[in-house]
Design brief:
252 residues; alpha/beta; TIM Barrel; 8-stranded parallel β-barrel; 12 helices; 8 strands; 16% strand; globular
């Protein structure tokens, strides 16, 4: 079994991660070496596939990796879990029934419906029995609350056994409210506040994307535990722009 995120979640301390969309294992290794607590491997909007998720998880070493699957889909979920990631982020979970489906597909019987495979997670079959004995307890399921319907159904979603935490998707949430991209609009922030208050009251780990360190610090102050700090592409772009700007100002 690869590194588990669950002990970190139980520590209640803020956990800094970043979103990787480029399927280069070197990027995952570099992010891990830089000290991130966890990594988000993005299949939904990034270029990852199951094989590249596995290579990134291997390169990250002791840093837990969560893969965001492209859909709440049996094939994707079982293939990605077999790579040895620490858990999944499932997008667009808007109802308790969708949360139940994700939780069931992640767990072996009798708790769920996950099928048995001999992939890297189980040491390619060398530790199948041990992995099966540990997997249900150690894997983490984070559901994304990124639609106004999900906000309305949040209490019922959080009541589903096997849902370990929530990640707010502010951009898709804003789109579902007819305010696409306007994540700082008062109406959008009010709905994010509803999610935050509900999760804090229930003691459910809560995460959110933060485009900058300043946004991340604000989120931590508000009670968010999982901070997805920027993305690989955004970080590279900002660093390159800053380097070019500095290059054009000699003597400073």
């Amino acid at each position: 079994m690869k590194p588990s995120l669950r002990p970190l979640l139980q520590s209640s301390r803020p956990l800094a991660g970043t979103i990787l969309s480029l399927p280069a294992p070197e990027l995952a290794e570099l992010a891990a070496l830089c000290g991130f607590d966890w990594l988000w491997l993005d299949i939904e909007h990034g270029l990852f596939e199951a094989a590249s998720v596995q290579r990134a998880a291997m390169a990250a070493g002791k840093t837990p990796c969560l893969a965001r699957v492209p859909a709440n889909d049996e094939i994707w979920i079982k293939r990605v879990l077999d790579t040895g990631v620490a858990g999944l982020i499932v997008p667009q979970v808007n109802t308790p029934e969708q949360a139940e489906r994700a939780a069931s597909l992640m767990r072996y019987p009798p708790a769920g419906l996950r099928s048995a495979g001999l992939g890297r997670a189980a040491a390619y079959g060398q530790d199948f029995s041990g992995y099966v004995a540990r997997a249900n307890a150690e894997l983490v399921l984070l559901v994304q609350i990124e639609h106004i319907q999900a906000v309305e159904n949040l209490e019922a979603i959080l009541a589903v056994p096997g849902v370990d935490g929530v990640i707010v998707g502010p951009y898709d949430l804003s789109a579902s409210m007819g305010l696409i991209g306007q994540v700082d609009a008062p109406a959008v922030q009010a709905q994010i506040g509803r999610v935050r208050q509900t999760c804090l009251r229930r003691g459910v780990p809560l995460g959110i994307f933060a485009a900058s360190p300043e946004a991340g610090r604000r989120a931590i102050q508000q009670g968010f535990q999982l901070i997805a700090l920027s993305t690989d592409l955004s970080t590279l772009g900002a660093a390159w722009r800053a380097a070019l700007a500095a290059l054009s100002q000699p003597g400073k």
